Amino acid sequence: QVQLVESGGGLVQAGGSLRLSCAAAGRSFSSYAMGWFRQAPGKEREFVAAISRSGDNTNYADSVQGRFTISRDNDRNTVYLQMNSLKPEDTAVYYCASGLRILLFTRPAALDAWGQGTLVTVSS
To answer: How far apart are CA 107 and CA 19, in angstroms?
Structure first.
């Protein structure tokens, strides 16, 4: 059973930056695609970004394209989400998740592991 632990959330002013990390333990990290979702208060969970097993391919939600960057370090078993030019509407709990293929991130129910989430609050 894989364990995913997010960190790096916090309070930031609009226009600022944060970097989230998700550390994985329990299985071969490089065998799985990784990604991020978020859930704002009163809203459904939504896809943010995903990265392939090798890191060669990435996908982003339109709402974060050009502002957020997903990356991974397979030697450190960690995936990152660099968030720049943050907006108040980015406020949410951010979750990392793993799946066998990057395409599975279009179907959250098909993903096999989730972290506990880290709260990002962007003030205006």
So the answer is: 25
DSSP letter at 21 equals E
How do residues 63-80 score in pLDDT, each as one tens digit? 999 999 999 999 999 999
d(CA 89, CA 25) in angstroms, rounded, equals 31
Q: Which residues contact 5 (CB under 8 A, 6 or more apart)?
A: 22, 23, 25, 115, 116
Per-residue pLDDT at 2? 82
Structural tokens at position 102: 């990057």
Task: Give residues with Cβ within 8 angstroms of 79, minimum separation 6.
Answer: 21, 22, 24, 34, 35, 36, 51, 70, 71, 72, 73, 96
pLDDT at res. 122: 98
